[in-house]
TrEMBL record:
<dbReference type="GO" id="GO:0005524">
    <property type="term" value="F:ATP binding"/>
</dbReference>
<dbReference type="InterPro" id="IPR024165">
    <property type="entry name" value="Kan/Strep_kinase"/>
</dbReference>
<feature type="active site" description="Proton acceptor">
    <location>
        <position position="187"/>
    </location>
</feature>
<feature type="binding site">
    <location>
        <position position="205"/>
    </location>
    <ligand>
        <name>Mg(2+)</name>
    </ligand>
</feature>
<protein>
    <recommendedName>
        <fullName>Aminoglycoside 3'-phosphotransferase</fullName>
        <ecNumber>2.7.1.95</ecNumber>
    </recommendedName>
</protein>
<dbReference type="InterPro" id="IPR051678">
    <property type="entry name" value="AGP_Transferase"/>
</dbReference>
<comment type="similarity">
    <text>Belongs to the aminoglycoside phosphotransferase family.</text>
</comment>
<keyword id="KW-0460">Magnesium</keyword>
<dbReference type="GO" id="GO:0008910">
    <property type="term" value="F:kanamycin kinase activity"/>
</dbReference>
<keyword id="KW-0067">ATP-binding</keyword>
<dbReference type="GO" id="GO:0046677">
    <property type="term" value="P:response to antibiotic"/>
</dbReference>
<keyword id="KW-0808">Transferase</keyword>
<keyword id="KW-0046">Antibiotic resistance</keyword>
<feature type="binding site">
    <location>
        <position position="192"/>
    </location>
    <ligand>
        <name>Mg(2+)</name>
    </ligand>
</feature>
<keyword id="KW-0479">Metal-binding</keyword>
<dbReference type="GO" id="GO:0046872">
    <property type="term" value="F:metal ion binding"/>
</dbReference>
<dbReference type="Pfam" id="PF01636">
    <property type="entry name" value="APH"/>
</dbReference>
Length: 261
C-alpha cells in the first residue's frame, strides 16, 4: 500500500491527510489509487514506471484538451516524476462507472454509453491535436510488440494461442483502405465512462483519446457490452448510436488492434 511518505516531496505534502485505496478496476498498466480524507475532496492518483511506453503524460494532455472542449472529465491537479516513476493526480468525478452502476438497468447503461460516444464523436477533428489514425497507431503497436509489452496470454479468446507477430501481420494485411475519422476515446469500455444520478458525468482513462476511425470506439464498446451484459444488448447500443448495421470486418479489425494496447 502506498502512503504520502512514499511520494515525491511536493505531492506527499499535498496529499497529507488522505487514505489510499487501490482501485483494481480496468486494464491500465498504471497503478490507480482512490484518495479519501475527512473533509477533503476525493482524488485519484495514478503511478507508472517511467519509460518509453508510459501513458500518464498522454492522459494529462488529453484531459486538459477535453476540459477545454467543455466535455466532462477529471481535472489534472498535479504531475510529478522522480525518474523512475511518473505520477498523475486528478479529481474524482461524481458517480460510478458504467460497468459498476448496478442501480441502473443494463439497457440504460448501454444507451448512456452510446450518447457519451456521440457527444465525443461530434467534436470537430480539426480541433483535436492527437492523431491516432492507423498510419500513426500501427507503428506504435509494432514498437510495443518489439518492446515485449504485448501480453500474448491476455488476448481475446478467439486469438489466444497466436503470437503477437502473427496478429501484427494480420493488422497489416487486413488494414482498411479508408477511415471514418472522429475524435475517439480510444478505450471505449464501460469502466471508462461515469454516471451519476442516472446522467452521464464524464470520461476517464483518456490516455488514448485521438482522431481515429469511429470503429476504434464502436468495436471496443461492443466487446465490453458483450463481456458485461451479453450479446443481446449490443444491438440496442448500436441503434442508439445510429449505426444499426456495422461493418463486421471493421469491428474485428479494431478489436484486433486493441490486443497491442
Amino acid at each position: 500500500m502506498i502512503s504520502p511518505q512514499a511520494l515525491p516531496g511536493a505531492l506527499g505534502e499535498r496529499l497529507s491527510g488522505y487514505r489510499f485505496e487501490r482501485d483494481a478496476l480496468g486494464r491500465s498498466a498504471a497503478s490507480v489509487f482512490r484518495l479519501k480524507g475527512e473533509g477533503l475532496p476525493a482524488l485519484y492518483l495514478k503511478v507508472e514506471a517511467a519509460g518509453p511506453f508510459g501513458e500518464l503524460a498522454d492522459e494529462a494532455a488529453r484531459l486538459g484538451w477535453l476540459n477545454a472542449s467543455s466535455l466532462p472529465c477529471p481535472e489534472v491537479i498535479a504531475r510529478e516524476s522522480d525518474g523512475e516513476r511518473n505520477w498523475l493526480l486528478v479529481s474524482a468525478l461524481p458517480g460510478t462507472d458504467l460497468a459498476s452502476a448496478s442501480a441502473l438497468a443494463p439497457l440504460a447503461r448501454v444507451e448512456l454509453l452510446a450518447e457519451a460516444l456521440l457527444d465525443l464523436h461530434r467534436l470537430p477533428i480539426t480541433s483535436c491535436p492527437f492523431d491516432h489514425r492507423l498510419e500513426k497507431r500501427l507503428p506504435v503497436a509494432k514498437a510495443r510488440m518489439d518492446g515485449g509489452i504485448v501480453d500474448e496470454e491476455d488476448f481475446d479468446p478467439a486469438r489466444l494461442g497466436k503470437s503477437a507477430a502473427e496478429l501484427f501481420a494480420a493488422l497489416e494485411s487486413m488494414r482498411p483502405t479508408d477511415e471514418d475519422l472522429v475524435v475517439t476515446h480510444g478505450d471505449a469500455c464501460l469502466p471508462n465512462f461515469v454516471v451519476s444520478g442516472g446522467q452521464f458525468s464524464g470520461y476517464i482513462d483518456c490516455s488514448r483519446l485521438g482522431v481515429a476511425d469511429r470503429y476504434q470506439d464502436i468495436a471496443l464498446a461492443c466487446r465490453s457490452i458483450t463481456d458485461n451484459f451479453g450479446e443481446a444488448l449490443v444491438q440496442p447500443f448500436l441503434h442508439r448510436y445510429g449505426l444499426p448495421a456495422p461493418d463486421p470486418a471493421r469491428l474485428d479489425y479494431y478489436q484486433l488492434l486493441d490486443e497491442f494496447f
